[in-house]
Amino acid sequence: MKTYALIIAGKTVPTYTHMEVRNPASAGVVGMAPKATVEHLDLAVKAAEDAFETWSKLTSEQRANACRAVAQKIEDNAEELAQLITREQGKPLSGNGSRWEVGGAVVWARHTATLDTPIEVLQDNSDGKIELLRKPLGVVGSITPWNYPVLTAIWHILPAIRTGNTVVIKPSPFTPLSTLRLVELINEVLPPGVVNCIAGEDHLGAAISSHKSIRKIVFTGSCATGQKIMKTAAATMKRLTLEMGGNDAGIVLPDVIPEQIVENLFWGAFLNGGQTCAALKRLYVHESVYDDVCTKLADLAKRVPVGDGLLEENLLGPVQNKRQLDKIVELVEQAKLDGGRILVGGENNRKGPGYFYPITLVADLENGTRLVDEEQFGPVLPIIKYRDVDEAIAMANDNPNGLGGSVWSRDLQKAAEVASRLECGSVWINKHGAIQPNVPFGGTKTSGYGVEFSTEGLNEFTDIQVIFS
Ligand code: NAD
After folding, report:
1. Catalytic site includes residue 120
2. Closest ligand 1 atom number to CA of residue 202
């Protein structure tokens, strides 16, 4: 079993203490992650500050080439990274699992290389010239969750370095190993100190968000943690991009043909076992097609192979950790008491180790029950019957989250009209959760602050300066 080290200033830095990282499919130890102290954090920030001096002065083309080199490095080591993600995160190698995640990291890195923040001339006339510059901020602190450890790291690191910043990243204590290896690989193609990785527990995240020499926090994780970061970052007025929890609603209109939508509905909800920020987490179905949608979803759910992600035949794996599994069990048990009808799953009958929970569909719930109102972040979908579309839109919007949403209909114009009334950052029609590197992504209400991806996301890693001449 391997003992990992921190990556600071291009070197591996061992620590005195470590954390066990467990495979959620077997509960076996995958590796020992280093446990960084606040002194390690200071060293990493200093390395990033030193590297910033040179990195921020490179030309845009030099940094674009560096992003391409990062993409190539990931591609060359894709299978190793995918295996490590599966062993520590649990998602299968196959399907939309860890190989897909690493492939996404390559695509995002390459696309970020093509983005730029050129000087804009706002005015050039007899009154003078005014130019708008976008300048790098300095050291960016990145804090990531456990559901997509490598892809989220790339979403944070690449726009930061593309625009001339340097980075200190702290992965989740549940899945630090693939990020440590990723940053080690990145350091083979970037100058030392541009990207540093310190692993540790939650309090290390708090130390990052209050660190006086860090200029920006890019965070992906729960709403509760995002709110804490906003508070601690206030003292130093850090720039913030916060991608937080979602409780995405899908509205199925009466005109659908259930067999045409059921596959997209299912994977919209159960991608990565529901442990996806913008997964479909509440499904509102018109009464005229309700029974049919429920039956067809349940039929599909019974056919999807769930098991150890290292076995190629599996398309879904375990829940990533015990804390999350306990929450899912609690929500489903409460849903039963609230009158929910279990269509499939609902009992954890599996023998043996690991944090498995069966794919679970719970019908006949309403707003005001915990499984509908709270983010489950697991392989469970509540289904709610509605009579009229205005009522469904009101129920969908009756939630503090506002990450994504979806509308399902054969009438694209009607669907677009419903979509525009949903209070969320992205709405998909006849699918759910699709994201692209050229399209901004972010949450409204308590789901987020700022956006990622595209030039809009890139700009968040810069400060504006205007020069009047
Ligand atoms: P979490 O908030 O518990 O942890 C995320 C990260 O924050 C970890 O690295 C953790 O160590 C760190 N952290 C914990 N306390 C901190 C503090 N006080 N200050 C600074 N950092 C701290 O979230 P999680 O359980 O790892 O991830 C699941 C959540 O993430 C879900 O709510 C999910 O919806 C959300 N998520 C959102 C998106 C998005 O893009 N909107 C994407 C993926 C996950």
Report:
1. no
2. 11
pLDDT of residue 385: 98
0.90 cut: is pTM over it? yes
Give me the catalytic one of 223, 277, 294, 424.
Answer: 277
Torsion sign, CA atoms 185, 188, 192, 195:
negative
Distance, in Å, from the CA atom of 455 to the CA atom of 431, rounded to the nearest integer, reads: 25
Atom of ligand 1 nearest to the CA of 403: 41
Q: Which residues of the chain have pLDDT under 70?
A: none
327: buried, middle or exposed (CB in 10 Å: 19+, 13-18, 0-12)?
middle
Least Cα distance to 321 among 149, 155, 81, 150 occurs for 149
Angle subtended by helix axes 60-76 and 177-186, to nearest 10: 130
The CB of 173 under 6 Å from ligand 1? The reply is yes
User: How many angstroms is it from 145 CA to the middle of ligand 1?
Assistant: 5
**What is the pLDDT at residue 352?**
85
Contact (CB, 8 A) for 157 and 216:
no
Active site residue 347: no
CA 147–ligand 1 middle distance (angstroms): 9
Q: Of all residues in the chain, what percent carry a pLDDT higher than 90?
A: 99
